[in-house]
Write a structure and sequence with these properties.
The complex is a heterodimer of chains A (322) and B (570). Chain A is of the alpha/beta class and 322 residues long. In chain A, 35% of the residues lie in helices and 20% in strands. Chain B has three domains: 23-154 and 184-205, no CATH class; 253-539, no CATH class; 542-570, no CATH class. In chain B, helix 6 (160-183) packs parallel to helix 9 (221-234), helix 10 packs across helix 19 and helix 11 packs parallel to helix 13 (332-351). Classes of the chains: A alpha/beta (322), B mainly alpha (570).
Chain lengths: 322, 570
């Protein structure tokens, strides 16, 4: 399999957004993640692969502050002091609707392991098993995502003060815009629990995007999707990347991951096995071994990796749940 | 609803059980008998149940029977006759069944009441029996009439003025029935009146009229709110200067306002608070010690507006103090801690009497003799006359409490419909996910606690002056339990539901004194039944309903369709 996706453009390697060094997570006697390093640069798509139980989701949880890592450090390009002011529009110039406005990166600073601090710093995530607010509508779900970027307090909310009205209108407009961005513009008023599976996945991405992240972590965004939905998902991820965000994806679908990612990190039993370009990882014998066991007389073809993925996804749902 | 604009429905669906031709005339005969019977004398004794002993001069309870019969007549005519267009919208048969069965129950209870109050069935006059027979005929005919295919109520639209008129008529009916029911002195009459209200309400619900009213009120929300407040405002004018009912009404309002405050904590933020009455107490005690009472222990006598602020600030501070350490635990633990806090408050107030610590509250004696409020030169103890109707002391407080409850409702509704309200829903739905999306979970819970406490403190400052005394035993655990019961009974997270629940829980024990010994038993039983059959409460908030029925796909689809209709209407 060769990578021949037209959409694939060379990564604009910018400065690092996220730098995790020596992240270690120990649950009692179990070493779930051992000394994993990962650097994500601006505008990059990084894949995270590995067999079930390799510690991918645990690593995600360490990054996003749901777990407090027992060792190592996560550093993130913090928000600069003054956010960029929107330039004044000249007369007659069309409104530039930037779906995901990106602010310039600050210097790398250590990230406190609290989910809220992580989100405020600019790292958002989705969950392996969808965790939407099931009884809220699609629009409301995305509006919740805007919570951390708005600040209207109780007083102005009760009085319907100017700040409340301005923020509420902006939140609604932005949520609508994001729903259109992920292709759900027509189902804003649908209850999340009534939506088809693929739409729920996309809604979760929209909700994460609503927090204005610089880096978005997607935990198995195509689990349980058919080939067409998978293709749409990868289009969406390219679209997110093209708007200037960095993306980290956990996925079992090898074709998907090798098409999509600029770099791939393979975790096995909590340790980083190899990190490199898709071609490098794809052809590494250790990766194939990790997936399908020690080599019999299989020629080292990536078809095997494909087969491995088929077996793998069937039990993917039983993987460790966060 | 008689001139529905959209074209009438298609003829009923083909597959219908054969209609018994006798059903409709039988129903008509039942209605006629019920009306005629109501004009005849029901009871030989003229001292019971109002006066039901005169022929051709119906008493109050007889008029209620006539109203039920007339409603049945309208539904019969909608079934077949001049109002069939109405019948294509209303589920007339279901309504008739309710009215028939309800009227039978009503008349049977009337006979029981007459025989118990005046020694035996011998005292029942023929009118009562005629009416009972009419009721039975009506019920029988209703069960023989066929059910019909109906159209969607959300499409039933009238011109705007007609819908507003419908709201006005409904509100006027509510006012008259409330005034009438409260005016009844003896327990039997009150029970019978309650049954009448229940029968009519269920019939309206079953025919779909309530659904229609729901859609109308969605379309004219402001009109409805305004109408509700106008009705509440007019209530004292129906009492002819009598303070008995106004005192009950004030208790209901204070209880309702406090329950609405607790509704923010329980219904919106989803936290269980079993010591909420302590915040009401904190406000009341603050107002008492800062009042002009001879027993007040603090020398500072600020104007009442300042007292209100101080009292609610004290309560909110208590909320923050109790909330900061405990809101990190959840569920049962929180319930236990808040319960403990409520008891600590009560014991502290009972012990701060100078023997153990400073004399702040006079201990178990409390602080009596709190003078009436004086706001802007108007003394709330004064009687005055408006349009020939005397308004006493309780009426004055009633108007103030009305403003208070309006404020509490405003705070509740606007918070619910804001960024903060969305955060609360997200926390209730999935706390972990909410946190991962950047919602300040702890801060929002604390905010709910503080705002709830603030509003209860506000209500407390007025309560102290209205009761003219505070003492520790007013703030027992059972009061917190009743507040919670009002919310669960009425419907968590709703305004109308909680007000309804508070009214039921406060009004019934006041009017039904004979029942007060069993009230805990009754309410316990009621709550168990509610939990089994309708956990979302009498008036269900849509979102809560979905949360309680997670498996019910049909409900989810129905709710969604309803939302879409509302969105389109905007």
């Amino acid at each position: 399999m060769t990578v021949t996706d037209a959409q694939r453009s060379p990564a604009r390697t910018g400065q690092p957004v996220l730098e995790a060094s020596g992240v270690t997570m120990r649950f009692g006697g179990l070493l779930a993640v051992n000394d994993v390093n990962l650097t994500v640069r601006e505008g990059e798509i990084v894949g995270l692969i590995g067999p079930n139980g390799a510690g991918k989701t645990t690593f995600f949880n360490c990054l996003t502050g749901l777990y407090k890592p027992t060792g190592g450090q996560v550093r993130f390009a913090g928000t600069p002091r003054k956010p960029k002011r929107p330039k004044k529009r000249k007369k007659g110039q069309p409104i530039q609707v930037e779906a995901v406005p990106v602010q310039p990166l600050g210097a790398l600073t250590p990230l406190s392991p609290k989910p809220r601090a992580v989100v405020r710093a600019g790292m958002a995530r989705t969950f392996q098993n969808i965790r939407l607010f099931a009884n809220m509508t699609a629009l409301e779900n995305v509006m919740v995502g805007r919570y951390c970027r708005t600040s209207a307090g109780a007083l102005t909310s009760v009085l319907h003060g100017p700040k409340f009205r301005r923020e509420e209108a902006a939140t609604r407009a932005r949520a609508q815009e994001l729903l259109e961005f992920v292709g759900l513009g027509r189902s804003t008023e649908h209850l999340a629990r009534n939506m088809p599976y693929g739409d729920q996945r996309r809604l979760e991405i929209a909700r994460a995007l609503a927090t204005d992240p610089k880096l978005i972590l997607l935990d198995e965004p195509t689990a349980g999707m058919n080939p067409q939905e998978t293709r749409q998902a990868s289009d969406l991820i390219f679209k997110i990347r093209d708007s200037g965000l960095s993306v980290v994806v956990i996925e079992h679908d090898m074709r998907f991951i090798f098409n999509l990612c600029d770099r791939v990190l393979c975790l096995v039993r909590g340790e980083a096995l190899i990190e490199g370009t898709p071609t490098e990882v794809q052809s590494d014998p250790r990766v194939i071994e990790a997936y399908i066991g020690t080599g019999e007389d299989d020629d080292e073809d990536d078809v095997d990796v494909q087969d491995a993925h088929v077996q793998d996804t069937t039990i993917a749902d039983e993987e460790n749940r966060s | 609803m008689t001139d529905v604009k959209t074209p009438p429905a298609e003829p009923e669906a083909a597959a219908q059980p054969p209609t018994k031709p006798i059903a409709w005339p039988l129903g008509l005969a039942g209605v006629v008998l019920a009306v005629v019977g109501s004009f005849l004398s029901w009871s030989y004794d003229d001292r019971i149940l109002g006066d039901l002993s005169l022929n051709f001069y119906p008493g109050g309870l007889q008029i209620l029977a006539i109203i039920v019969a007339v409603l049945a007549l309208i539904l019969l005519l909608a079934e077949r006759g001049p109002l069939t267009r109405l019948g294509s919208w209303l589920d007339a048969t279901l309504g008739l069944r309710v009215l028939g069965a309800g009227l039978v129950l009503y008349m049977a209870l009337v006979l029981v009441a007459i025989s118990t109050d005046s020694n035996g069935l011998i005292n029942v006059n023929p009118g009562g029996y005629v009416c009972l027979v009419g009721a039975v005929l009506l019920a029988v005919s209703a069960w023989m009439l066929p059910l019909r295919q109906l159209r969607d109520m959300s499409e039933a639209k009238l011109p705007g003025w007609a819908e507003i008129l419908a709201i006005a008529v409904l509100m006027a009916a509510v006012l008259f029935v409330a005034a009438y029911a409260l005016g009844l002195q003896d327990a039997w009459s009150f029970v019978l009146c309650l049954i009448f209200i229940a029968v009519v309400a269920v019939a309206l619900f079953r025919t779909g009229t309530l659904t229609w009213i729901g859609h109308v009120s969605q379309r004219h929300r402001k009109v409805l709110t305004l109408a509700a407040f106008v009705v509440a405002f007019l209530f004292p004018f129906t009492q002819n200067g009598s303070d008995a009912n106004m005192s009950i009404a004030n208790q209901v309002l204070i209880f309702g306002a406090t329950a609405m405050g607790l509704n923010i904590v329980v219904g919106l933020a989803g936290l269980l608070d079993l010591g909420y009455i302590a915040f009401l107490g904190a406000g009341a005690y603050t107002a008492a010690v800062l009042s002009n009472s001879a027993f007040a222990t603090v020398g500072w006598k600020p104007p009442f507006l300042v007292v209100m602020l101080v009292g609610s600030a004290v309560a909110a501070t208590f909320g923050l103090i109790i909330g900061t350490p405990t809101l990190r635990v959840s569920g049962d633990y929180l319930a236990i801690v808040t319960l403990g806090f409520g008891e600590i408050f009560r014991f502290s107030m009972g012990n701060l009497d100078g023997n153990n610590g400073p004399n702040l509250t006079n201990g178990p004696n409390g602080i009596p003799g709190i003078p009436d409020l004086e706001l802007f030169g108007f003394n709330f103890g004064d009687e005055h006359t408006v349009a020939g109707i005397d308004l006493g002391r309780f009426s004055n407080y009633y108007f103030l409490l009305l403003v208070l409850i309006g404020f509490v409702i405003l705070v509740f509704a606007r918070l619910n419909d804001s960024r903060i309200g969305r955060g609360w829903v997200a926390i209730r739905e999935d706390e972990k996910a909410a946190e991962a999306m950047g919602v300040n979970v702890f801060g929002l819970k604390l905010l709910a606690f503080a705002i709830g406490a603030f509003l209860a403190g506000l209500a407390g400052t007025i309560k102290a002056h209205q009761d003219a005394a505070v003492s520790p035993d007013q703030y027992q655990f059972i009061e917190s339990a009743f507040l919670l019961a009002a919310i669960v009974l009425g419907g968590m997270g709703t305004i109308a539901g909680v007000l309804l629940g508070a009214t039921i829980l406060k009004l019934l024990p006041e009017k039904l004194r004979f029942f007060s010994e069993y009230r805990l038993l009754m309410f316990g039983l009621l709550l168990v039944l509610m939990m089994r059959f309708r956990p979302e409460g009498l008036v269900a908030s849509r979102r809560r309903q979905l949360e309680f029925h997670e498996e019910d796909e049909q409900l989810a689809v129905a709710v969604e369709e309803e939302r879409l209709v509302v969105e389109e209407a905007k």
